[in-house]
Amino acid sequence: MRVIEPGHIYELNNLDGEGKSVLITYVNRENNPHEGTQTQEILRAQIDINSVLIDRTNHCDSCLRWEGNDRIIKAISESQRQLRLALLYHEQRALERKMDKGKLLPENIPVAEDGHIQIVEDVCIWKENKHTDADTGCGYVVNDQPLRVKDLMRADYTSSPYKFCFGCGKKIKFIPLNEEN
Ligand SMILES: [Zn+2]
């Protein structure tokens, strides 16, 4: 990695091809204005990449079980939690600045039954199915992990149960077979 424009443009190592550079370009609203992305968006991409890594590891584990894969998934899940925290801290910064500018009054944000800020939950419903592991609301196929999805959904089975859908990234609402169908 090479810094092209401090704080704004970074060049990544490029393999093969004709030396066309791969850049991470941040938006610049300072001395040299140009378009680009922001750290939050790259954090979201990294969180999604961790989901891919977990999914891939599960897939490989269902081909050939190795107990060390559980540790790999735990490590990736913990790293994903840290990335989500980093994203939350960015949002905290943005909310504080909006409050200081008078654009946000925290006392006016609706609260839920638990007395805290209301979160509108956008969930992906995973319905356990007799023939596959689960039918997912977004169409993500989970039946390449025979008999493991239900176990991985249980909080007592692992410290990192599935919480977010690998298909759409939404929080999973899991409906076991005996409750619904
Ligand atoms: Zn989904």
Strand order across the largest sheet = 1-2-3
Distance between the termini: 53 Å
Number of E strands: 6
Mean pLDDT: 85
Structure description:
The chain is α+β, with helices and mostly antiparallel strands. The protein has 2 domains: 2-106, no CATH class; 121-181, no CATH class. The protein has 4 helices and 6 strands; from the N terminus they run βββααββαβα. The strands form 2 sheets. It has a 3-stranded antiparallel sheet with strand order 1-2-3, with no helix packed on it. The chain has a 3-stranded mixed sheet with strand order 5-4-6. Strand 4 (123-128) and strand 5 (134-136) form a beta hairpin. Helix 1 packs antiparallel against helix 2 (68-100). The longest helix has 33 residues, at 68-100. It is flat, with a radius of gyration of 21 Å. The model has no long low-confidence stretch (mean pLDDT 85). The chain binds zinc ion. Zinc ion (ZN) binds next to loops.
Quick tags:
single chain, about 180 residues, 2 domains, 4 helices
